[in-house]
Design goal:
With 189 residues, this protein is mostly helical. It has one domain. It is built from seven helices and two strands, in the order ββααααααα. A two-stranded antiparallel sheet has the order 1-2. It is globular, with a radius of gyration of 23 Å. The two termini are 32 Å apart. The mean pLDDT is 76.
Length: 189
């Protein structure tokens, strides 16, 4: 395509010293006369719109992943807060983090759904700075312990799981399938 000594790498980028040039696909270039695209170019406005939506959703997922990693618990948000308040044992919390990291690789859309409500929930309800927040933490601790116990069982860190934790996971998966994030999973994968 180019006749000078610049090189095009495997991703189609043209190197220019320390700068790189990324050519836009022909189908996305500005068309001032609104002429139809040539037959050899698949210019489908709906497909371009869907691709942009997917790119935005992936960018939001990456941003949420960075926010969660900055919080220190990887994929685990609620259990991290309960661990910080002393409600979870270290070995159970570590196993829960392993499960969350595995889930992050296997089903990133599920993690994005969890973070979409889990991070605001932790920041607004489980901050532990008011009496009401401390009461919510105390009341929710049996559920968090059951969840963490089941996740530790699923990664093989403990010998016995939790029926309540298993039920919570099944319920969460069902609610996830009803959410917009499950549709995003199908579009991305």
């Amino acid at each position: 395509m180019y006749e000078d000594n610049r090189k095009i790498d495997s991703q189609g980028f043209l190197s220019q010293g320390t700068k790189t040039y990324t050519p836009k696909p022909i189908s996305m270039r500005f068309n001032p006369a609104n002429k139809p695209a040539p037959d050899h170019i698949n210019y489908d406005k709906e497909a371009v719109r869907q691709r942009k939506i997917q790119q935005r959703q992936l960018a939001m997922q990456e941003e949420q992943m960075e926010d969660a990693k900055d919080a220190g618990g990887g994929g685990s948000v609620i259990c991290t807060r309960y661990f910080e308040h002393g409600y979870l044992d270290e070995h159970v919390f570590s196993a829960d983090c392993v499960f969350a990291d595995r889930l992050m690789l296997e089903n990133p859309a599920f993690i994005a759904w969890y973070w979409s409500w889990g991070i605001p929930f932790v920041n607004t309800v489980l901050h532990g700075q008011t009496k009401l927040s401390r009461l919510a933490i105390w009341l929710g601790s049996p559920l968090c312990k059951a969840w963490a116990q089941e996740m530790a069982f699923q990664v093989g860190a403990v010998h016995k799981g939790s029926r309540v934790g298993k039920w919570m996971m099944k319920t969460g998966q069902f609610i996830f399938k009803l959410s917009k994030y499950s549709r995003m999973e199908k579009a991305v994968c």
